[in-house]
Design brief:
heterotrimer, A mainly alpha (366), B alpha+beta (543), C alpha/beta (203), A: 2 domains, 15 helices, 69% helix, globular, C: 203 residues, alpha/beta
Chain lengths: 366, 543, 203
C-alpha cells in the first residue's frame, strides 16, 4: 500500500518543541515564549495575507458578477492590487478630529481587529495545525467574535457624527439579534458533535461531514447560519451599519488612513472566520470528504493536504456570501429585525428540538 | 374656451382676456385669490393642476403668469396674469392654500423677483443662499460679483422661516416661524451624499429611524440658465436644454425648437419630425434604464446598474454615430435637426429592439420578483392621485398614482397622434408602481420605435432658417413630455433677436417638493427608496 | 512634493515615454538606496491605488458612472473603490459645475480629504465655468477654490478622457517623493533642458 500523505502537522510542532527544549537545552519558559512569538508572527502574517487575498477575491467576484474584468493592471491578473492599496493606506494621513472622545475613537479599530485576530486561534487550519485546542473552543470563538460589536459601537459613538451614531445603533441592534441565531445554529451542531472542542468536532466528522450526518436539521441549521453569519459580518444585504446609500460610510465615516484600514481588513477577515466556522461545523473543518464504506475514495481524498481542504471550503463558502452581497438589495431595519425575531429564532429553536430528537433516537446517518 | 371666458367674465367683471395659444386672464391682485379659488373648486372650471408660475419683470411692473390645467375637462390650459407696479415692496396674494405645489413655485418667484406672497407659509429663498443681495431675474439686477462674492465660508443657517400674514383688517404683518424645534434630532442628508442623485440637501428631523419632517434645500447646482438665455440668440439658448435634465436632452430640445418654430411660423419636414420623435423615445429608454440602475443601487443591489447600463451604452452608440456626442447632443435645431441620420441608424435601432425584450425579462427576474425588493418597495412612499395632481407630480411618478398626465396622449404634439402606443397607468402609487411604470414605458417606447424605424420618410432634415432669428412681439407656451414628466416652456418676446424671458418649468422641481409629504412617518431607508423612485435630476430642478 | 508638472511643456504630456523617462531619472539619481527603494515602493503603491470620492454635481457625474460600468471598467486600474466618506478617498473628481452655494461645501469636502490628496477638474464647468461662465451664480473654475492637479476638458469628457486624466494623475504621483532625498526641482529642470520636446520653445 502506498504511504498516505496525511500531513499531521503536530509532528512538526513537536519537533520544534523538542529541538528548543532538548537540543538547545533552553528552559521551559523561554521555549514557550519563543514559540508564542513565532506563532504570533505567523498568525499576523497569515492574517494580512489572507485579508489582502480576500479583498482581491471579492473585487474579482464582484467584477465577474457585473460583467467586468476587475483589477488586471497591477501585477499579473491584478494580483498585486491589494498590496498597492495596503501601501497607500499605510501612509495616508490619520485625521485628528476635535470634540470627540479621543481615547475611545482610537481604541475602536483595535477592538475590531483584535476580535478577529483572536478568532484565528481556534480555527482548525489543518491536521494538528491549530494554535489552541481546548474543551470550549467553539464557545470561546463566539465569545471573542462578539467583542467586534463593541468596537463598532464605540467607533460610531465616539466619532460625534450623526451618521456614525445611527450606523452604530443599527449595528448594535443587528449584531446582538443575529448573534442569537449564530449561537443557536452552532448549538444545534454541538449537540450532534457532543463536544465543544474544535479538535473533537473535527474528529467526529471523520466518517461523514455533519451536513450529511445530521441531514434535515443540519441543513436547516446551515441555511440559518449562513444568513445570520452574513448579518454578523455586516455584509450585504445586511450592511445597514455602513449602508452606503443611506449613511455615506456608516460607523467608520470619520476614520481615515490605517484606522479605516483596520475596519476594512476586519470586515474581510470576519468573512473568512464565519466561513471557517461554517466549514468546521458543517463540512468537517480540515477533514477531507469521507463517506463510510468508500475506502478507496476516502484514501484518494486524503492525498490533498488538510490545510488546502480547509482553505478551499472557506473560499467556496465565502463565495456564497459575496454572491449574496452583489445580488440582493439591502434590507430595511424593521425587515431585518423581523426576519431574525419572527422567523429565524423560532425556526432555530424548533430545529434544535428536532436535532435532539434525532440524536436521542439515533436517526442520524452512521 | 369661449364658455369658460364667459363664465369668468360673469363672475369677475374686472377680468380682461387675451387670446393667444392659451387663453390669458388678466386680473388685479385684489380679486386674484377669489378667482383662483373659483378656478380650483368650481366644478365647471376645476383647474386642479398648476403647471407653473412664471415670474415676470415687465420693467414698469412685476408680476406672475400662472399656468393651470384641468385634468378632468379635456386637459385644457389657461393662464392668469397678475401684476403689481410696486417695485420696491412688491406683494401678491398667495394661492398656496389652493394648490400644494404653489408653495414651492411662489418661493421660486420670490427668490428670482423678490415678489412677496401674502399668506404663503414659507417665504424663504429657494435656490440662492439666505444673504444673497438682489433678485437676479429682475431686469435691473446688478451682476457685480463684489455684491455676492464667492466665499468658502459656510453659509448662514437659520432654523426659522418667514411668512407675511394678512390680518382681518387687511394689514400685512411679517412673522417668523420655527421649522425645527430645538430638541429635534436633525440629520443633514446632502448636499454631498451618495444617493441624493446630485447635490440636493435634506434636513431631516428623525426620531430614531423614523422621519418626522424634511426640509428640502436646493440651489447647490443653480446655474441661472433662465437669466443666461436672455443674453443669447434663440439658436444659442438651445444648448442649455442639454444640460438641464441630461437624460431628456432630446426631449427638451424638441420642446424649445417647437416653441420657437411655432412663434416664428416655421414648418419643418416630416423627416425631421420622425427623427426627433425617434430620438426622444431612444432617450426615454436610456433614461429609464439608468433610473432602474441607480434606483437599485440606492436599494443596495449594485449589480443591477451594470446590467441596465449595457442597454444604455447601446443607445449611446446609436446617438453618437448620428449626433457625435455621448451626452450633450445639441441635435435638434430650429428648422429640423443638425445632421442627417447616420447610415447605420436603422440597423442599430433594430438590433437594439431585438435585445430589449430579453433585457426586460432579465430585470424582472433579477429585481422585481426579489422578496427583499418587494419588502422595500411595495407600499413605500404612497402618493394618491389627488395628491399627485395637487403637488404636480407628473411623468412616470404621476402615472404610477393613476393620473393620466402623459402629454404625448393628452395634448398630442408632433407625430404622436398617429402612433400606436399606450399610456402606462397604475393605481398603487407606491415605489414599486413607479418602478414598474418605467419598466413598461420602455416597452411602449420600443413599440413606437418599431413603428417608425422602417418608415422614415425621405426629404430634407432641416429647412432653411435665418441665422439671426427674430420673433414677433408676443408670448407662447409649449409643453412636451420629458423622461421625468411635463416639461413646460414659456417664452415672451419683445421683437428682438433675444428672448425677453424664457421660463423653464422643469418636471423635477415638484418631485422634490413632494418628498416631505410622502416620507412622513417612514424610515430613513425609505427616504432613499422614495427619492430614488421619484427619480429627480438636480440640475433640472435647480436650472 | 517639490516636483511640479507646471514647468513641463504642454507637448511633453502627449508623450508618455518622455514622462516615464523623467520619472526614472528623478527616482534613480542622487537618492540614498534604501530611502530610494522605500520611496519607489510607496509610490508604486500610491500610484496604483487611487480611490475616488463619490462626488458629482451634474452631467459629468453620469459619465463617471459610465466609467465604472462594464464597458470602460475603471476597476481594471483599481480605481473602483469609490468611497463615500472623504476621509477615506485619495482624490476627488470634480465632475460638474460648482456654483456659489456649493463652494463652501466643496471646499469643506476638500479639507476633509486625508493627505495626500488630489483634485481632478473634470469638464469645462469645473475648469472655467464652461457654458455657464457668464452666470451670476457659477464659480469660474475651481482653481481659485482648491489646487487642481489634472484638468480633463470636455463637456462632458468622454470616459476615455477621464481614464487618461486619472492615468496622468497616477504618473504625477510617481514623481513625488515621500521620504525625501536631493533637491528634485533642480533635477527636473536639468532633465527638461536635456530632453527638449520637439517644436516646443523651452522658454
Amino acid at each position: 500500500m502506498i504511504p498516505l500523505v496525511i500531513d499531521d502537522f503536530s509532528v512538526v510542532c513537536d519537533a520544534v518543541n523538542n529541538f528548543l527544549l532538548y537540543t538547545c537545552g533552553l528552559p521551559k519558559w523561554l521555549t514557550v515564549t519563543i514559540e508564542c512569538i513565532g506563532v504570533g508572527v505567523g498568525l499576523l502574517l497569515a492574517y494580512a495575507l489572507l485579508a489582502l487575498f480576500y479583498i482581491l477575491y471579492e473585487r474579482k467576484i464582484c467584477a465577474y458578477i457585473q460583467c467586468r474584468v476587475g483589477p488586471v493592471r497591477v501585477g499579473p491578473w491584478g494580483l498585486f492590487q491589494s498590496f498597492a492599496d495596503m501601501f497607500k493606506i499605510l501612509i495616508k494621513e490619520l485625521i485628528h478630529l476635535d470634540n470627540i472622545d479621543r481615547f475611545l475613537f482610537a481604541l475602536a479599530p483595535y477592538l475590531v481587529i483584535i476580535a478577529s485576530v483572536i478568532c484565528f486561534a481556534v480555527l482548525p487550519w489543518g491536521n494538528g495545525l491549530q494554535i489552541i485546542d481546548f474543551n470550549i473552543g467553539i464557545f470561546f470563538l463566539i465569545a471573542c467574535s462578539s467583542i467586534g460589536v463593541l468596537g463598532i459601537l464605540l467607533a460610531g459613538w465616539s466619532s460625534a457624527n450623526k451618521f456614525t451614531l445611527i450606523g452604530a445603533m443599527r449595528s448594535g441592534a443587528q449584531m446582538v439579534s443575529y448573534e442569537l441565531s449564530v449561537g443557536l445554529s452552532i448549538l444545534t451542531m454541538v449537540c450532534l458533535a457532543g463536544t465543544m472542542s474544535v479538535g473533537g468536532i473535527v474528529a467526529e466528522q471523520e466518517n461523514l461531514w455533519f451536513i450529511f450526518k445530521g441531514h434535515v436539521p443540519a441543513v436547516i441549521a446551515f441555511v440559518i447560519y449562513m444568513i445570520a453569519a452574513t448579518a454578523e459580518t455586516n455584509r450585504g444585504p445586511f450592511d445597514l451599519p455602513e449602508a452606503e446609500s443611506e449613511l455615506t460610510a456608516g460607523y467608520h465615516t470619520e476614520y481615515s488612513g490605517i484606522h479605516f484600514g483596520f475596519f476594512y481588513l476586519a470586515e474581510y477577515l470576519n468573512l473568512f472566520i464565519v466561513s471557517g466556522v461554517a466549514s468546521l461545523m458543517f463540512f468537517g473543518g480540515w477533514m477531507p470528504l469521507h463517506f463510510p464504506g468508500w475506502d478507496t475514495f476516502n484514501h484518494i481524498m486524503d492525498y490533498c493536504p488538510s490545510v488546502i481542504w480547509f482553505l478551499l471550503k472557506c473560499f467556496v463558502l465565502s463565495y456564497v456570501i459575496i454572491w449574496f452581497k452583489w445580488t440582493f438589495p439591502r434590507l430595511r431595519i424593521d425587515n431585518l429585525l423581523a426576519l431574525e425575531w419572527k422567523y429565524l429564532l423560532p425556526i432555530n429553536l424548533a430545529n434544535l428540538v428536532l436535532m435532539v430528537l434525532i440524536i436521542v433516537f439515533g436517526w442520524h446517518i452512521v | 374656451m369661449a364658455e369658460i371666458q364667459e363664465k369668468i367674465a360673469k363672475l369677475f367683471p374686472q377680468a380682461t382676456f387675451e387670446q393667444g395659444d392659451v387663453l390669458r386672464i388678466c386680473i388685479p391682485d385684489a380679486q386674484w385669490h377669489d378667482l383662483a379659488s373659483a378656478l380650483r373648486h368650481d366644478p365647471d372650471l376645476n383647474y386642479d393642476y398648476m403647471i407653473t408660475i412664471a415670474g415676470m419683470d415687465w420693467r414698469t411692473s412685476l408680476g406672475c403668469v400662472y399656468f393651470l390645467q384641468s385634468t378632468t375637462r379635456g386637459n385644457d390650459v389657461i393662464s392668469v396674469k397678475v401684476e403689481t407696479t410696486d417695485r420696491e415692496n412688491p406683494m401678491l396674494h398667495s394661492v398656496a392654500d389652493l394648490w400644494a405645489v404653489a408653495t414651492l413655485y411662489e418661493r421660486e418667484v420670490y427668490d428670482f423677483f423678490g415678489i412677496i406672497f401674502i399668506n404663503n407659509p414659507d417665504m424663504r429663498r429657494l435656490f440662492l443662499n439666505i444673504d444673497w443681495v438682489g433678485y437676479p431675474l429682475r431686469k435691473d439686477y446688478d451682476q457685480d460679483p463684489a455684491l455676492n462674492p464667492i466665499t468658502t465660508e459656510s453659509e448662514r443657517q437659520s432654523d426659522f422661516t418667514q411668512t407675511w400674514v394678512e390680518g382681518p383688517d387687511g394689514k400685512v404683518e411679517k412673522k417668523e416661524v420655527r421649522i425645527f424645534q430645538p430638541e429635534e434630532f436633525v440629520v443633514n442628508i446632502g448636499p454631498q451624499h451618495p444617493s441624493t442623485h446630485g447635490v440636493l440637501r435634506f434636513r431631516t428631523a428623525v426620531d430614531g429611524e423614523i422621519i418626522k419632517k424634511i426640509d428640502v434645500y436646493m440651489g447647490y447646482i443653480h446655474r441661472g440658465v433662465e437669466k443666461l438665455c436672455e443674453d443669447l440668440t434663440y439658436q444659442q439658448t438651445l444648448h442649455y436644454m442639454d444640460r438641464l435634465d441630461y437624460f431628456s436632452a432630446h426631449n427638451y430640445h424638441h420642446g424649445l425648437c417647437r416653441l420657437i418654430e411655432r412663434a416664428a411660423g416655421i414648418q419643418i419636414t416630416r423627416r425631421a419630425e420622425v427623427i426627433r420623435v425617434m430620438m426622444d423615445e431612444l432617450s426615454r429608454i436610456a433614461s429609464h434604464c439608468l433610473f432602474m440602475g441607480t434606483f437599485c443601487m440606492d436599494l443596495g443591489a449594485t449589480s443591477m446598474l451594470f446590467y441596465t447600463l449595457r442597454v444604455r451604452e447601446m443607445i449611446l452608440d446609436i446617438m453618437e454615430k448620428t449626433c457625435g456626442a455621448r451626452m450633450t447632443f445639441n441635435y435638434d435645431c430650429i428648422g429640423g435637426v443638425m445632421q442627417d441620420l447616420a447610415p447605420d441608424f436603422q440597423k442599430d435601432v433594430k438590433a437594439l429592439l431585438a435585445v430589449i425584450p430579453a433585457n426586460i425579462k432579465e430585470y424582472n427576474k433579477v429585481f422585481v420578483g426579489n422578496v427583499i425588493a418587494k419588502e422595500r418597495m411595495v407600499g413605500v412612499g404612497y402618493l394618491s392621485k389627488e395628491d399627485a395632481i395637487d403637488y404636480a407630480v407628473t411623468g412616470p411618478s404621476g402615472r404610477a398614482s393613476g393620473w393620466s398626465c402623459d402629454i404625448r396622449k393628452i395634448r398630442p404634439y408632433s407625430i404622436y397622434p398617429e402612433l400606436d402606443f399606450e399610456e402606462v397607468l397604475m393605481a398603487e402609487g407606491d415605489a414599486m408602481a413607479r418602478f414598474k411604470v418605467r419598466l413598461r414605458e420602455i416597452e411602449e417606447s420600443a413599440k413606437i420605435l418599431a413603428q417608425l424605424v422602417d418608415n422614415i420618410p425621405e426629404g430634407e432634415y432641416c429647412v432653411k432658417v435665418p441665422k439671426m432669428l427674430k420673433l414677433p412681439v408676443g408670448h407662447w407656451w409649449e409643453m412636451v413630455e420629458g423622461c421625468r414628466g411635463v416639461f413646460g416652456l414659456y417664452l415672451e418676446s419683445d421683437g428682438t433677436a433675444k428672448p425677453y424671458r424664457l421660463k423653464i418649468a422643469p418636471p423635477c422641481l415638484p418631485l422634490a417638493g413632494v418628498v416631505d409629504h410622502i416620507t412622513e412617518g417612514m424610515k430613513i431607508a425609505d427616504l432613499i427608496t422614495i427619492g430614488g423612485s421619484l427619480d429627480y435630476i438636480i440640475p433640472d430642478m435647480d436650472r | 512634493m517639490e516636483v511640479t508638472t507646471k514647468s513641463m511643456p504642454y507637448d511633453a504630456w502627449k508623450d508618455n515615454e518622455y514622462i516615464e523617462n523623467l520619472v526614472k531619472e528623478l527616482q534613480e539619481s542622487g537618492t540614498n538606496v534604501i530611502v530610494g527603494s522605500f520611496d519607489k515602493l510607496i509610490n508604486w503603491g500610491r500610484s496604483n491605488s487611487i480611490w475616488p470620492l463619490t462626488f458629482a454635481t451634474s452631467c459629468c457625474g453620469i459619465e463617471f458612472v459610465s466609467l465604472g460600468a462594464a464597458r470602460f471598467d475603471m476597476a481594471r486600474f483599481g480605481w473602483e473603490v469609490a468611497r463615500s466618506s472623504p476621509r477615506q478617498a485619495d482624490f476627488m473628481m470634480v465632475a460638474g459645475t460648482i456654483v456659489n452655494r456649493m463652494v463652501p461645501v466643496f471646499r469643506r469636502l476638500y479639507d476633509q480629504l486625508a493627505e495626500p490628496k488630489y483634485v481632478i477638474a473634470c469638464g469645462s464647468c469645473a475648469i472655467s465655468g464652461g457654458p455657464f461662465n457668464k452666470s451670476y451664480h457659477v464659480a469660474k473654475g475651481i482653481e481659485d477654490i482648491v489646487p487642481v492637479d489634472v484638468f480633463v476638458p470636455g463637456c462632458p469628457p468622454r470616459p476615455e478622457a477621464m481614464i487618461y486624466g486619472i492615468m496622468q494623475l497616477s504618473r504625477k504621483i510617481k514623481v513625488e517623493r515621500f521620504f525625501g532625498g536631493v533637491n528634485r526641482q533642480q533635477k527636473q529642470e536639468d532633465f527638461l533642458k536635456s530632453h527638449p520636446v520637439q517644436d516646443v520653445d523651452q522658454g
